[in-house]
Amino acid sequence: MREEKQKSTAASILSWILYLLIVVVLSFLCVTFVAQRTKVIGQSMYPFLNDGDQLIVDKISYRLRDPKRFDVVVFPYRYEQNKNYIKRIVALPGETIQIIGGEVYINGEKLHDPYGEQIGLMDYAGTAEEPYTLADDEYFVLGDNRNNSKDSRFGDVGPILKDELIGRAWLQIYPFSDFGFVSHGEKE
Q1: Domain extent at residue 164
Q2: Which of 45, 133, 150, 177 has the most Cβ atoms closer than 10 angstroms to its Cβ?
Q3: Alpha-carbon distance values, 160 to 11, 21, 101, 134, 179 (Å)
Q4: Does the annotation count 87 as an active-site position?
């Protein structure tokens, strides 16, 4: 009887260890390939997102489809480890972007941008002062708060390659009053 109880206890412990191992492996796979939490730092996406907002980033979408204009994306800053940026895609591969008089032009036509227009004209055109044609795997990103954003206009950020994208902002989880899906405005 004592031997049966020891076997039962050992089986129970082994079962718990196996359960915990499965949870750890599934959590690792989820964070690595499916989703990750990120925190907005700064006001570059104001008024759409604010400093301290927390989001879940969808890491699967871009394995199944290409990013679209106005997607809100997360990508690593190239020159500092563990620092991610969150910006909005405004120009797609193969397009020519130029900023004239504080407004974005794509292939020579003014972009109707409901996100950037909320703040007003840009003071700084940066690398887009002259026409810039994106390569087949490049995206030009801007913060919604254009005059308070370090984005593709700056040489150290520049256009973002598709394989540099961590993913697209999917769900805002904090503050709780703003809980909900992130609107990307997939319109041209």
Answers
A1: 37-181
A2: 45
A3: 52, 37, 24, 10, 28
A4: yes
